[in-house]
Amino acid sequence: MSVEEASSTQNSVPMETAEGTGDSVVNGESSNTGVLSRIHQLLEGSHGNNAEEAVKSCKAIAASVLTAPIPINVIDSIHYLTNLIVQTCPIRGISIIDDLLTRCSTPGVLTSLHSDLVQLCLAAKLLSPALKHLDQDITAISPHEDMDVRFVLQYYYYGGLLYASLRKFTRALHFLEICLSVPSQQTTSAIQVVAYQKMVLISVLTGQQLNIKMPSLHTNIPNICRLYTNLLQVAADKDVDKFAATVAQMTPYLEKHNNLGLAKQALDRMKQNDVKKFRTMYVSLKLSKMAQHLKISVEQVENILRKMILSGDIAAQICKKEDMVWFINDNEKFDDAEAIDELKQAFITSMSSYNKAKELNKTLSQNPKLINRVMESESRKRQYSE
Questions:
Q1: Exposure check for the chain: N or C terminus, fewer CB within 10 A?
Q2: Could you give the CA distance from residue 289 to residue 358 in angstroms, rounded to a whole number?
């Protein structure tokens, strides 16, 4: 990314001095471009001491921003800082962006800095700072002139990866689906291609059927990712042996795309689903007989059962001495206080989303441009029908 020149607009608020910089700042914007120019010089150098000094300078500039909106030159500098430290010391930039977003962004409004924060949190394996922002549903995109569709795609892609790493797969699929649904540029975005690959594997892992509504421009993504589309079709047949063989054939591609771990988890999940079928048919069963049906060793069956018992997927007891497994009836109950609180919270969230969608629909219905487009579309339909 090339270094752009910092803008120098002035706001009518009291002037502050950024600590450690010696330059007066107006709501985060320097009265001269000295500090920002120095940051850009450091970032272009992109070496250890430069990174340390750039972090300190960016921290001082970010701390000087008092109110929204965040000035473009500050956002610009933080983007460059993210690119510099994401591979070396990502943890150094997390608190800077998190603090800035907490103080100067509107909840539910997506900015270009959100994608930087999630990217750094993933790289640092420190997920909680990003999680509190990701858990807030986005209802609007920042009208800031620096906001580009690339940042929207990155936010939802990185967000999907973060939720997947926490095994919150439903939320991960939701984020990746939004990433694929975003109308991007004239050509298919590489971010959307890798998002589709992740989404295929997570859907197989969770057993959820893919139902993606992609813009017509991006309907070629399944063809671009033909191997993954084929893997999805194989998984639909629920043939574990065939799926394992397909994964083995795809191993070089999966390793190249950093998806081999997800594919192996998906294969394990398919084996676990086969084990669950025995629970519905038997109260107890010999491990050797189960291994024979599944076409795997007794040791592998034991390992699968242990994992499922520890994760709470099934309730069972294993007796290796007698070569037996006993399945226990574990009817789930949802009458405790915690379940009721979760239900209430889900209801409140649903009603809030419904009201926001209703407001947005009302605003759109009164938009003159939208009304003109609808009328033009209806007019063309009538012409074709005649």
A1: C
A2: 57
**For residues 25 and 64, what is the distance between their CA atoms, to the nearest angstrom?**
7
Contact (CB, 8 A) for 250 and 235: no
DSSP 240-272: HHHHHHHHHHHHHHHHHTT-HHHHHHHHHHHHH
Instruction: Give dist(CA 12, CA 382) in Å, integer.
Output: 54
Phi/psi at 284 (5° precision) = -145, 155
Distance of alpha carbon 64 from alpha carbon 19, whole angstroms:
8
CA-to-CA distance for 49 and 145, rounded, in angstroms? 32
Amino acid identity for residue 331 in this structure: N
**How many residues does this entry show for the chain?**
386
Angle at 156 between CA 139 and CA 58, to 5 degrees: 90
How many CA atoms, within 13 angstroms, populate the side-chain half-sphere of residue 172?
A: 23
* Spatial separation of the C-alpha atoms in residues 90 and 84, rounded to whole Å: 9
* DSSP annotation string for 164-189: HHTT-HHHHHHHHHHHHHS--SSS--
